[in-house]
Write a structure and sequence with these properties.
With about 575 residues, this protein is mostly helical. It is built from 21 helices and 8 strands. It has 3 domains: about 80 residues, no CATH class; about 375 residues, Glycosyltransferase; about 50 residues, no CATH class. The chain is about 45% helix and about 10% strand. InterPro entries: FTB (IPR026872), PGGT1B-like (IPR045089), Prenyltrans (IPR001330), Signal_recog_particle_SRP14 (IPR003210), Signal_recog_particle_SRP9/14 (IPR009018), Terpenoid_cyclase/PrenylTrfase (IPR008930).
Length: about 575
């Protein structure tokens, strides 16, 4: 319609102006220099409080000033010690925290989180996966425990199924979302097979409302979280159809506020978490071209989102005039990643990641995470707070967002659906962010918030799907990776969706990093069918284990077995 065209043109002009302004301001500084620049926005100027001198301070503004003092003190102490004292990601201590909680019963005070057991499993497993050390024992134990919370119930019309947050609890969309993602991380095909997807679909339809929204449980509250959780569950179980899609996008668009962000429901206040849920849900339903003409006001959404980053702290707040919080590194940061994909692909038609436009200052955010969000064990909201499972996971997700751009692949969208159309690529722009090996975390899926996958496995009949997560290995940069053809070792009914995979070619690029310890020389590896495997025995063994872990029990039949079978028939 003409009005839509005018709005889109105005939006494009505004987006261009916003990006040009950020570039002219020179917002990218690295490590030490960035930290120095961040201190220019001192708490004495009330830079982030929106309060004039002499104005009566609210409780929120006073608390915000206290946080700024704490953050500034931390930054000043680090700068006084020199550029080599900027903290690194304490992988060892965070790993101990994560695995300690994954491998023992939780202490008594956690009883108040009895309805959040699927969430606890997801937060811990995803945290371990992001720093690349989730082990098979933990995966199998988690899968076993999670299936205790899988519940089927018979009503007057249908038998339905979903996950409760704990034992003997009603199916709940948030609990089911966390359980499905945790099972995906477990890569346990046996547990995945136990889910009756058609019963889950019936339950999702019971949770759906006439206006296109979803309720968290039958008779429960409706908000954008519920819509996002329902669509993620349906997409991952391969049951997303027109009945579940109908009216959802229109309802989500109504949740965008005058500020630009999305609220939980029409008429409420814009919030970082709800904004991520709404935009991610729209990306599941619509491709970027459709999204641009859906009624989404891109101009004010971008402005509201980038305004969530504070100049002194470097981190994000979740709402206007609220405090910085490490978890919004994911909720707002994930929104940033999707918006960047949208404007780089749709607006500027940029295909080269080295020319991608960044909407935020990634180095500032990484500084906040490394300097202010690390507790002795685990990660936290802000200085003065204790670490917890929730913040450990979402701060690590935010760190991943800092280090990667999301690339849109229309061929994947056409073949596998919109939800699987984007993949992360590590940022190599020297003026955008510095990524040390010690601080590196895996790239995450922009929609689902789990480590990105090199392959999507679909069971026979298309009833459900499961991921194989990426693996980060190190080898000498001069080694030739040859003599391997992983496709020949896969069952015919299972094919990996490798990045840029072409079945007619003999080389198959995969997301595995090869480095000699110098990240600047690191590169992706191509697996070919040429012979030269002597230096790659360990690599092939690990890669094979990754493949097999995705679908235990599926093995290619050997020629000897076929011969025995033929002989027995004769």
């Amino acid at each position: 319609m003409p009005n839509d065209e005018v709005k889109n043109q105005q939006s494009e002009v505004a987006v261009s102006s916003l990006i040009e302004t950020s570039q002219n301001q020179g917002i990218s500084f690295l490590d030490f220099d960035t930290l120095l620049n961040m201190l220019d926005a001192s708490y004495d100027s009330f830079s982030n409080c929106n309060a004039s001198l002499g104005e009566v301070l609210t409780d929120t503004i006073e608390k915000k000033m206290e946080v700024e003092v704490d953050v500034q003190t931390i930054y000043e102490d680090i700068l006084s010690e020199g550029s080599d004292k900027i903290p690194k990601l304490n992988r060892e201590m965070h790993s101990r925290y994560i695995h300690e909680m994954l491998n023992r019963p939780l202490p008594a005070p956690f009883s108040k989180l009895d309805a959040s057991k699927t969430w606890i499993a997801f937060w811990l497993m995803n945290s371990a996966a992001l720093i690349d050390n989730l082990n098979t024992k933990e995966q199998n134990n988690a899968a076993k425990q999670l299936m205790y919370f899988y519940k089927t119930s018979s009503g007057s019309k249908n038998t339905v199924a979903g996950f409760g947050g704990g034992l003997h609890q009603l199916p709940h969309l948030a609990a089911s979302y966390a359980a499905v993602l945790a099972l995906l991380l477990s890569k346990n095909e046996n547990a995945w097979r136990e889910i009756d997807t058609q019963k889950v679909k019936k339950w999702l339809l019971q949770c759906k409302n006439k206006d296109g929204s979803f309720s968290m449980h039958v008779g429960g509250e409706s908000d954008t979280r519920a819509a996002y959780c329902a669509l993620c569950i349906a997409q991952l179980l391969n049951i997303l159809d027109d009945d579940l899609r109908k009216g959802v996008a229109d309802w989500l668009i109504k949740c965008q506020t005058y500020e630009g962000g999305f609220a939980g429901a029409p008429g409420d206040e814009a919030h970082g978490g709800y904004t991520f849920c709404a935009l991610s849900a729209l990306f599941i339903l619509l491709n970027p071209d459709e999204l641009m003409v859906s009624g989404l006001n891109l101009e004010i959404l971008i402005k509201w989102t980038v305004d969530r980053q504070y100049s002194l702290e470097g981190g994000f707040s979740g709402r206007t005039n609220k405090l910085v919080d490490g978890c919004y590194s994911h909720w707002v940061g994930g929104t940033v990643a999707l918006l960047e994909l949208l404007i780089n692909y749709n607006k500027y038609k940029i295909n080269d990641p080295n020319k991608y436009l960044s909407l935020i200052d990634r180095q500032r955010l990484q500084n906040y995470i490394l300097c202010c969000c690390q507790d002795t064990f685990g990660l936290r909201d802000k200085p003065g707070m204790n670490s917890d499972f929730y913040h450990t996971n979402y701060v690590l997700c935010g760190l991943s967002m800092c280090q990667h751009f999301q690339i849109y692949d229309p061929s994947k969208a056409q073949k596998y659906g919109n939800a699987f159309s984007a993949y992360p690529i590590e940022i190599e722009q020297p003026n955008t962010i510095t990524i040390l090996d010690d601080n590196h975390v895996l790239g995450i899926d922009a929609i689902f918030g789990v480590p990105y996958v090199t392959g999507l496995l679909t069971k026979n009949g298309g009833k459900s799907s499961i991921y194989i997560t990426q693996k980060r290995l190190s080898y000498n940069i001069d080694d030739e990776i040859e003599g391997i053809n992983p496709l020949s070792d896969l069952p015919k009914n299972v094919k990996p969706l490798l990045h840029e995979f072409n079945p007619d070619q003999k080389t198959h690029p995969i997301l595995i990093r090869v480095t000699d310890g110098n990240r600047d020389k690191s590169k992706k590896v191509k697996l070919s069918t040429v012979v030269e495997p002597q230096n790659l025995a360990i690599f092939w063994k690990e890669y094979t284990n990754i493949i097999k872990a995705g679908f235990p029990g599926l093995k290619k039949k050997s020629k000897s077995k076929k011969k025995v079978k033929k002989t027995s028939k004769k």
